[in-house]
Amino acid sequence: MTSAATCSVGRLALRHVLRALGAIFFTVACASASAQSPPDSGLRVALVIGNGAYRSIERLANPVNDAVAIAARLEALGFELVGDGPQMDLDRAGFERALENFRKQIRRADVALFFYAGHGVQIAGVNWLVPVSAAPRIEADIARQMINANDVLALMRGARAKLNVVILDACRDDPFAAAADSPPPPAQTPTPIPVVKPTPSPPPGKAPTTAKPATRGAGGGLGRMDAPDNTLIAYATQPGNVALDGSGGNSPYSRALAEAIGLPGLEIRRVFNEVGVRVRRATNGQQQPWLSASPIEREVYFAGRPSNLATQPASPELNWAIGTWQGRILDYPRNWEAERAWAVANVDGRLKCFWQARGAPQEQISCAITSDEVVVATAGGAPNVKLRRDGDKLLGTFLRAGMDTQYRMELKRVSTTIVRWPDLSTPQPANADNRWAIGLWAGQIQDYGKGKSAGRELRIEVVDDVLRCLWRDVAAPFTPVPCGVSDRAVLLRSRGGSDIELTRTGAPLSGTIRARSSQKIYRLSLQKRS
Questions:
Q1: What is the Cβ-side half-sphere exposure of residue 372, based on CA atoms within 13 angstroms?
Q2: Which 3 state secondary structure label does DSSP give 253?
Q3: Which of 171, 205, 222, 303 has the highest local Cβ count within 10 Å?
């Protein structure tokens, strides 16, 4: 790829139709990610869509990976995800089902967030989101095959959430320029003849003007949409500008969004301002994200309100807490990540506390420790975790931010030092230590029980110098999953939230799979097939 997003679409037989339709721009998404601690108040609901496996136009590598990462970040921030995870490679029917489920879930939401990564279209000032099945041949196909972005806004506005956030992570160049100049491939079916207005004859004495394709010289991809009340609409770059594709598997915008959205103490408008500053800095001023916002009646913090991350002096009676405690929220809903870790370190005579959801980054938090109990504020606001010593365990309660339900929690010391779970939400560059894992691995879950499909396959590949992991039950298609690969181990999380830990033991990979739904642990062995 070049430094600017190439976003070019393969040859389409209907270049003449495209000229007749007017200024149409397909834009490819440039998004990505990470994860964090829960928000400060109110129920959050997010629909995250990544479309890349297009059937009639250029397939895109980044959107699905970006959707996986953004979904992981939002889930760790306390968002309830439509479909229990990112929705990937949706055709028109699947897109409509996802939107209908989104509409139902945001009726009771404080914040509704819609994230889309994939191709997009602008026609006469109207923005359209493109399902993977779209193959427009005449103008009437646009409304039949695509999703009007204004309909998404209307759906969200009708549900009356206190805040609506729409993020359209897309490039802004003109991918149809090359297709319009190229001769069409042999037609499979007759192409309708577009109705084109005749070009007026030039005045006497003037040379005729050469007609240009409709998209040639166009000012940009998706057009600007005005934000309704209590709504933020975020774009990867300004209208008419080109978003850079970046390196390392993520666009500059996506990387900045993943980092900024999880920063404690930043109100949402400051979050997107921080995104803009980071992108401008990373691209040497070549790219500037764009935000359309209406007045918002209150302050909203995704990662908690400002906190001074208070520490306390170390003392002998508090030394019992130093180290890492891992465990789980015992009665959490099955589709929510339940594993948590609390860690304490003595830094220059003061105790600092850290908190981590499994698979997310470890973050410093505020806490208060006594001789036999601890109170923790995981979201930067009011304390929401209270634990008491019980032998070698900590027992207590966890209050999910924005909800009234208290859940039981149990942690056990696993180390007297700081231990971190791998952050699977950050893309991992391919290098000499992890390239051994590239290829297709296949095997079986042991002792899985009768009537269950035990066959599993793992494919590890390199896309733009970044490792990409795909996982599947052999009866289902591959889906991208967060993963981490070292010189002898592979860690990944399935789309359903199961944790897979595999170690290189000679030729095979051997380890365990922990099912999120049942918390049962099964043995797993995979052999390399290619």
A1: 3
A2: helix
A3: 171
Angle between helix 149-159 and 92-105 (nearest 10):
20
Report the Cα–Cα distance between both ends of the chain, in Å, rounded: 27
The domain spanning residue 320 has which CATH number?
2.40.128
* Same domain membership, residue 450 and residue 404: no
| Domain end marker among 266, 293, 320 | 293
Q: Look at residues 293, 322, 351 and tell me which one is the last residue of a structural domain.
A: 293
Task: Give the count of beta carbons closer than 10 Å to the beta carbon of residue 417.
Answer: 10
The single residue listed with the structure tokens 């679409």 is 9
Q: Would you say residue 317 lies in a domain? A: yes
| Residues 180, 147 share a domain | yes
CA distance 234 to 254: 12
Query: 372 and 471, same structural domain?
Result: no
Residues 460 and 392 occupy one common structural domain: no
| Lookup result for tokens 């209270």 | 386
CATH number at residue 107: 3.40.50.1460
Residue 186 carries which DSSP code?
Answer: P
* 304 neighbors 318 (Cβ within 8 angstroms): no
Give the predicted TM-score (pTM) of the model: 0.59
**Domain assignment of residue 278, given as a range:** 15-184+220-293
User: Do residue 22 and residue 108 come from a single domain?
Assistant: yes
If one counts the domains in the chain, the total is: 3
